[in-house]
Amino acid sequence: MDTQKAIIYKGPGTFAYEERPVPTIKKADDVKIKIYGCCICGTDVNIFATPQRHPCKKDIIFGHEFCGEVVEVGASVNHLKVGDKVIIDPHGPCGHCDDCLAGLPEACENVFLGPDSGFEGQALTLGVFADGGLTQYVVMPSKFVYRVGPDTKPELMGMAEPLAGCGYALEKLNVHVGDTACVLGAGPIGLMFIALLKASGCRKIIVSEPVEYRRNKALEVGATRVVDPEAEDVAKVIHEETDGLGVDHCIEAVGGLIEECIEYVRPRGKVLQYGHDELARPEIKVGILLKKEVELHGGFLGKYYMRKVGQIIESGVLPLDKILTHVIPATKYQEALDLAASYQCGKIFVEIDF
Q: Which of 11, 38, 77, 257 fits a disulfide with 73 by CB distance 3.0 to 4.6 angstroms?
C-alpha cells in the first residue's frame, strides 16, 4: 500500500478526505504506528469555528489526540516492540534546549514555531501545525511514544494528551485532601479537572456550567454542586458552600473568565487559567488580585506527564469512561465535529474506519 486515506484541514471551517503517502521509517529512532483513532479537542472546535478561534496550518493531516499500535520500529528502538499499544505526545520536547536541560520540558524552546512560520508563539503540535493522526499510519520519533497495557481501551488512550495537560497543570495548585474547589466550565477539559480534583481528595467541587447536559455529566464524575451561571449567582453559591471564605482553588476551563476566578477564591487562594481562547481579552481587577494575594497560574502543555497518564489510564482511578461519551467513525467526521460544537457530549473518539 503506497497511499492512505486521511482527513486534511483545508482552511477555516473546511476539511477533505484525501489520499496521502504512507510514511516510512527513515531514522533509527523512528516508530511506525497504525492509528486506532483520535479524540476531538476543544481546540479543534475553535479551529473550525466561525470566526476561527485558533490557527491551523492548511493542508496538513488533522488531529492531535491520537493513539495506536506499533507496527514497525527503527534499528535503535529497544523500549517498544511490534504490537505494543501506545499513546502519543503530539508536541514533545526536544530534550536538549536550555529549558529541557533545566528540567522544564513543558517550556521547551524548540516546541515553538519561529516568527517566519506565520504562527508565532504556537506549539508545533502534530495535527494542528504539522501532519497528525486522522489517518491510517504515522511515523514519529520513539521518544514521543509511550506504551500502555495490552487491555487498555483505544478510546481511553485517545484522551491521554488532554489528560496530561490537565494533570500537569493541576499539580501547580498543590491540592490537599479536604480542600474546596470551583471549576468554570464542564466541557471535556472541565470534566477531567473535576475527576482529578475528586481523586486528589477535594471535599467540595462546585462547577459552573450553563449547559444542562454538562452539569449532569459533572455530577457523574465528582462535582458536589453544579450551578447554572445564567440562572444563579455563582459567587453567592460559593459563599454559601464555603462559609463565606471562598474556594481554595478555582480552575478556568472556558477561556475568558479569569476575573471571576479571582473573585471566587479565598485570600491566598489559587487560580489556574487553562481555558484556551486566542481571542479572549478578559479584564482583571488588579486591586482584588493584590489584596487577596491570589496565586495565579497558567497551564498549557503536559509533556513530562505522559508516562504518568498512561499509568493513570491503565489504573482506572478516574471515571474516564464517563467523560468519553461517543465513538464515531472517521468517515462521519463532520457529524463528530457538529456534535462536539453542540456541547451535548463529553469527549468524542473518532475511530479510524478507512
A: 77
